[in-house]
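task queued by scheduler; priority normal; single chain, no ligands, no partner chains; default sampling; output format set to structure tokens
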Amino acid sequence: MKHIKLILISLVCVIATMTKAQESSSQNKFFEDGKSWLWARHHYKLHGDSIGFYYKKDTTYWTETVVEDTIVDGHHAKKLLIGDSLGVPKEPHHYKIYLEEEGVIYEYGSHPENYDSLCFCHCMDFNLHVGDSVYHNSIYGYTYFMFEVMNEETINVCGIERRKLTLGNKFGNLGYWVEGIGANVQDCYMHPGWPISGSEGYWCSMVKCFQDGVCIFTADDFLASTDGIKDVAVSEKDKALSEDASLYDLSGRKVTGTPRRGIYIKGGRKVLVK
């Protein structure tokens, strides 16, 4: 009889653990019903005249809302309805299709190596760790947008813990991926958009994320950190880094000598050393 009780107790504990794990993972799902995003599309252009050059930028907004399930190429995916800044759908309706499998996010679109065909292309991979490269290996050989995972941590926003990856590239730029939310800018997805020319192009940034009409994440939350220090994109040669300023690693230990490439704390801010 005691053995039966022990078995029953063990089963209850296992079920409770599985339920808790499912609840925890469901919090960080990207494409839940009722979830939506507000995005900003920035158009920039460099103009020149007899006096010199000046920079002009205009911004438009749109929304993406999870509306229904769909099956594409044998995969169970999600359809996101495109709307204006207030969420009003465009006519005729336009959709984006995303797939989420084992921590990897895919968007259905043009094949990175053959624009005449369609496939599920990598957007984000939350199985990556510090030191891993974030770059879709295209036959075109673009390396401008190649990022590397510089830091990984868990942040708490609106009472939900989410995994956050900080990405850095050779230009000293930082980008962020947050589980269940997305990237702060589309340029650090694994299949970024390209400039129209050297003096004109587009880039997109996430403004807010909503669940059932309630804002659960904003662009500022991408800078949240477990150590309470906000991320600031700075290169090793940046003028803001003074000669006598002390440098610390993420564990709070003072760094002496020449630092290796990575993220450090300097003057109360996170800095990226290339």
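post-processing summary
- The mean pLDDT is 75.
- Residues 31-128+183-225 form one domain.
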